[in-house]
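Schema walkthrough. Field components (list of strings):
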Amino acid sequence: ETGVTQTPRHLVMGMTNKKSLKCEQHLGHNAMYWYKQSAKKPLELMFVYNFKEQTENNSVPSRFSPECPNSSHLFLHLHTLQPEDSALYLCASSQDFDEQFFGPGTRLTVL
Amino acid sequence: AQSVSQHNHHVILSEAASLELGCNYSYGGTVNLFWYVQYPGQHLQLLLKYFSGDPLVKGIKGFEAEFIKSKFSFNLRKPSVQWSDTAEYFCAVNSQGNLIFGKGTKLSVKP
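Field assembly_structure (string):
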């Protein structure tokens, strides 16, 4: 148990759907992250939140919209996704910029 | 742009063989270096990390890595692998607050 939970673990959605991914960390960390993991590609950092403020947005398309209501919760809102957005979406947290603890991920399939 | 290179995509070894996985990074400033492991069906978890001090760092499960600043390298080693080491291994560099990952190396250990 890493202390970072993600729901749902699997999600199948159509291109016109709107869905949200949820991440919760129980470690008292002040930074949270969204990553995308696709086959044969490096883990891609999508968003970084430090003390609830977004500090990084790595040119992610606007169809991905993050939300960080407090330092323990992080959401990724999805709308009008494309099939190439199918991937494993990982959430992580850290205290400042020390070791990151990862959640189990949400396996997303866009039809 | 900063980048992390892992030279081997897939390594296949027999039990008791020695392991060395290569990792090179491109950033010339102060960096923090990590190796993460992802066992089949499990979370990414930290194997070891280097921030400063002794360039030879020891991690969990008998793994170690050596930071060679002049070569921009942080290779992972284990003298004798076990079947349970079958996993995917990711090198990562934290510079200026963001964690940059390599593409990963899959290790398959034959019993």
